[in-house]
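Students often ask why inverse folding is considered easier than folding. One informal answer: many sequences map to the same fold, so there is more than one right answer. In these notes we will look at a single instance of the problem. The structure comes first.
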């Protein structure tokens, strides 16, 4: 994000996707988290890449308190939004407090997370490089962590179209692109994360957490499709011409409630076995 307009657009995207994120997260991972945190007072949660704070708004009311959340992001505007919109009550009515830290997540150390009862992140892992992920895993090792909504490279659009697979492959290549010398993990992030924790002797439980976007989420389906196709075209510009009519068809189907989209993700629970 380079300016306020970009930040506002990104915040709007996060707001649009928040209900789908909430519906997709693997709720069966919550009980092991509650067991791990039982008796901890207060529960201190470090939320990495907090954005506008959707993870805290989802999780804090599902956990007993009192809780203190520490929200990390590079963007001060997003952190201000997250702080102002954070819930203030835990599942049992106990208070939830919040602070923010503007930071480069890839430089966090175990000392930064020393007081964490739980580390959380949402839609973060696929944006990291292997080295960056390794550093975050090393910082988190020995602590419980709930890392949600990492893409795994599986998308299904219904009704199907012959161009779907070609666009999906180009998008996955874009997710693995090299940016300023950083080669992103994209859909390989989940496997890389599990392997990295295993090297620290830490077990990870993995659950599916797919977005299912139907007529009730037509606006999100259209916005997701536009970004998905745009990334594929950026990766393979030769797709632009052949996908012009395809884009019109897909967006018309979304507007009419005829398009169903499944975007597969995985949620990871660390250190709660």
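Output (designed amino acids):
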């Amino acid at each position: 994000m380079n300016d306020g307009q970009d930040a506002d657009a990104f915040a709007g995207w996060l707001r649009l996707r928040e209900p789908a994120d909430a519906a997709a997260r693997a709720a069966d991972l919550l009980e092991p988290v509650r067991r791990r945190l039982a008796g901890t007072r207060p529960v201190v949660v470090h939320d990495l890449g907090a954005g506008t704070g959707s993870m805290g708004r989802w999780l804090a009311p599902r956990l007993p308190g009192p809780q203190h959340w520490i929200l990390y992001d590079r963007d001060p505007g997003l952190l201000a939004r997250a702080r102002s919109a954070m819930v203030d009550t835990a599942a049992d009515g106990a208070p939830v407090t919040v602070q923010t830290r503007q930071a480069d997540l890839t430089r966090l150390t175990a000392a930064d997370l020393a007081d964490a009862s739980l580390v959380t992140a949402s839609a973060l892992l696929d944006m990291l490089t292997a080295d960056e992920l390794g550093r975050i895993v090393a910082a988190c090792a020995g602590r419980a962590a709930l890392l949600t909504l990492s893409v795994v490279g599986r998308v299904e659009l219904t009704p199907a179209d012959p161009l779907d697979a070609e666009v999906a492959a180009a998008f996955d290549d874009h997710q693995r692109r090299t940016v300023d010398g950083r080669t992103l993990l994209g859909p390989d992030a989940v496997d890389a994360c599990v392997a990295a924790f295993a090297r620290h002797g830490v077990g990870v439980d993995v659950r599916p957490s797919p977005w299912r976007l139907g007529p009730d989420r037509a606006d999100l389906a259209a916005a997701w499709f536009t970004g998905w196709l745009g990334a594929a075209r950026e990766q393979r510009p030769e797709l632009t011409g052949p996908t012009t009519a395809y884009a019109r068809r897909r967006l018309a189907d979304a507007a009419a409630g005829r398009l169903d989209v499944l975007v597969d993700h995985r949620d990871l629970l660390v250190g709660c076995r």
